[in-house]
Amino acid sequence: MSSRIDKFYTAYFWFHVAITLLVDAAIALPVKYQFDIQKAMLSTHIAMNNDVLVAAKPAWLQGFVWIELVLQVPFFIWAGIALPKNDIRVYPAILAYGVEASTTTFACLVEILSNPDISAADQRGLMGLYLPTFIIPLLMAVDFGLRISKKLKAQQSKTVKFE
């Protein structure tokens, strides 16, 4: 593995497989298809954090969770395997994930901060939970955008131009 940051990203990907399947999936799946552990973890999260956004399960949030389940979980597994092997083929996917995840989390942050039903104290607590899932993917997007740009520039300088 090339760096400490890549080790962090890899841990983040594997952690998110578990979080997505055990907690987030319960936001989108009908109750009859949820495992007891999913119901319990979601209920615990809502109760401990007074997360009215997750409790309300708006359609747009459920849509974001379906993106997590269908696109991100397979990506997390691939990235969790490929990044430690320095497989640069995963770089564009990490860039895309970073942009997508930071964008969808930004929508959640805006909702939390603009919802009059969420107290200032609960907003601060929820920001502590949601901000990392905004900042880390945004950092990935910038990091892997720069890595890809550097690789492309190096490749371009190797190419002999005949004009």
UniProtKB/TrEMBL annotation:
It is a multi-pass membrane protein. GO terms for cellular component: endoplasmic reticulum membrane. Belongs to the TMEM97/sigma-2 receptor family. InterPro entries: EXPERA, Sigma-2_receptor-like, Sigma2_recept. Its main location: endoplasmic reticulum. The chain crosses the membrane at residues 12-31, 63-83, 90-113, 125-146. This is Efficient mitochondria targeting-associated protein 19. It comes from Starmerella bacillaris (Yeast). Residues 5-141 form the EXPERA domain. Keywords: Endoplasmic reticulum, Membrane, Transmembrane, Transmembrane helix. It is found in: Endoplasmic reticulum membrane.
